[in-house]
Design goal:
Helix content: over 70%
Strand order of the largest sheet: 1-2
Distance between the termini: 67 Å
Radius of gyration: 22 Å
Order of helices and strands: EEHHH
Number of strands: 2
Low-confidence stretches: none
Structural class: mainly alpha
Shape: elongated
Largest sheet: 2 strands, antiparallel
Length: about 80
Amino acid sequence: MTEAGGIAADALRSYIERIERLEEEKANLAADIKDVYSEAKATGFDVKIMRQIVRLRKMEEHDRQEMEALLDTYTHALGMARG
């Protein structure tokens, strides 16, 4: 292993190259996701709402319930009560 200033250059290079490959994959996935949202929008779906649903589905059930309860409390306090 090549040492430069006490750093194992080969190991560092390997990590950097792996990160670069993963960043490229991430960019490709982001482009694919954008394409799917564009398709959905073209067929009449509201992309903003879809993004919100995706975010909600990632949440744990108890966290989602807590957020909904707080939202309900805040909207009532502001006179914006739903339903």
